[in-house]
Fold these 2 entries.
Entry 1:
Amino acid sequence: MSDRTFIRYFSYMIGTMVVLAVVVFVIAQVVAGKGTNAAAVAKMKKMNNTAIAERMKPVGRLLVRATKSTMNSIIPTANAGGEHGAHGKSTYDSACGACHNAGLAGAPKTGDKAAWKARIAQGNEVLYGHAIKGYTGKKGFMPPKGGNTSLSDGVVKAAVDYMVKNSK
Ligand code: HEC
C-alpha cells in the first residue's frame, strides 16, 4: 500500500473514532442525565438533619411499653431523691403497704416506732437483705420483695428507706 493510501485510511479511522467519541459522549449525557444529577444534588442540599435521619432510620423499630416492672429494670437503683431513690413511696404503696400498713400477718406497721426500734437497730443492710431475700422472724414471714420478685433490689431498698424514715 502506498503512503498516500495509508494516510487516507488512517484519516478515515481517526475521523470515525472522533465521531464515535462524540456519539458515546452524547449517549453518556443522556443516560447519566446531567439534569437529574443536578436535581438530586439540589434536593440533598435542601434536606435537613431530620429528613436525613428519616431516610437513614432502620426499617423496623421495637416499641417497648413501659410497665412498672420494666421501669424497675430500666431504673435499677433510681438514685434520685435520697439514697435509693424517690421510688420508695410508690414501691411501698404498691408492694409493701398491703401488709405493713395494717400490720397484717405479723408485719411491723409502718409508723409503729416501738415495733421498728429493734429492727432499725439492726442497721439498713440487714433490713435490705431481709426485704430482698425474705425473712422469717418471730412474728411471721416476710416474703422476698414482698412477693413481687420483679422489683429491682434498688426500689425495694428505697421502700425500706421509706418505711424506716416513717417509723423512727
Ligand atoms: C405478705 C405480707 C408482707 C408484704 C407484702 C411485705 N412484708 Fe415486710 N414483713 C412482713 C412480715 C410478716 C414481717 C415480720 C417478720 C418477722 O419479724 O417475723 C416483715 C418484716 C419486714 C421488715 C423488717 C425485717 C427485719 O429484719 O426486722 C422489712 C424491712 C420489710 N418487711 C420490708 C418490706 C418491704 C420493703 C416490702 C415491700 C417490697 C414488704 N416488706 C412487703 C410481711 C410482709
Entry 2:
Amino acid sequence: MGHFDAFRYDGKRALVVGGATGMGAAAAELVLDAGAQVIVMDYADVSIEGVEAIHVNLGERESIDAALDALDGPIDALFSCAGVADGTPGIERINFIGHRYLIDRLLERELLPSGSAIGMISSAAGLGWEANLELLHELLDTSDWDAAVDWVAANGKADYLSMKQAMCAYVAREAYPLLNKGVRVNAICPGPTDTPLAQANAETWLGFGADYRTDLGIEASTPLEQAMPLVFLCSDAARAITGQTVISDAGYISAGVTNAYPDAAMAAQFLLGRLG
Ligand SMILES: NC(=O)c1ccc[n+]([C@@H]2O[C@H](COP(=O)([O-])OP(=O)(O)OC[C@H]3O[C@@H](n4cnc5c(N)ncnc54)[C@H](O)[C@@H]3O)[C@@H](O)[C@H]2O)c1
C-alpha cells in the first residue's frame, strides 16, 4: 500500500447514472478498471461487461424511486452523468431535477455515507452560474419535484444552459452542508467531447471551438479524457476538493478570458455570464 492507492477504487461501490454511453460509460469502465464494484443506471440498455444495470428514466420521479429500490447497499462514489440536449422534453428533470432528487433520496436512505463523493457532469454552458445566483437560489430552495418543475416552467428555464448553471450552483452551494455529512460534491464542465450526444448535435456541439482546436492541432476530447478527471474527483486522492466545477475544455475558456486566443474571448465572456 502506497499513497498512490488513494487514486484507486478497490473495495468501493460506484453508481454511474447515465452510464450506457459517452462519458458516463467511460467513467463506469474506468472505475471498474480501478477496482470498484459498478452499478449503472440508465434509460438505455447497458452493454458494459461486469457491471450491474438498473433501468431509470430521470424524467420520471416514480422511475427514480423504483431504481433506488433496486439498489442493494450504500454507494461510495456517485457519478451523475446523464444529460440531454435542448429540444428534449423533460430536459429540466433529466439534466438537473432528477439528479438532485436521486441524491436527496440516497442521502435520506443513508446510501451516501460519510466518506462518499458525488461527481457530476455539468458543462462549459453552465459556467455563468454566479451571475444568475440570486435567481438560481430560488430553484435550489425548491426541493419538491413538482414545485421545481413548475418553477422552471414559470421562469422559462427549461433549457440546457439554465439547467447546467443550476447544476454548477448546486455543487457550489451544497458543498458545505454535504461536507457536514462527510460527503463531497464536485463537477466537471467539459468542452466539446466526441460522444453520441455531441454527434447528434454535431454542428453546435462539436463545431464549438473548432477553430481553436485546429489552431492547436488537437481534437475534441474523448469520453475517457473527461472520465479521468471525474473519476479523480470522486477518489480519496481528491479529499481536499469539494464544491468545485472543474473546467475540462483543453484551455478554451482560459484562452478567451485572457485574450491569449482572442477569437475565444466573446464566447468565454458569454459563457461566464460576464457580458452584462
Ligand atoms: N459531449 C459533449 O460535448 C458535452 C459537453 C459538455 C457537457 N456534456 C454533458 O455530458 C454528459 C454526458 O453526455 P455525453 O456527451 O456523454 O452523451 P451520451 O448521450 O453518450 O450520454 C448521456 C447518457 O444519459 C442517458 N440518458 C439520457 N436521457 C436519460 C434519461 N431520461 N434517464 C436516464 N438516462 C438518460 C443516455 O442514455 C446516455 O447513456 C451530459 O450531461 C451532457 O450534457 C457533454
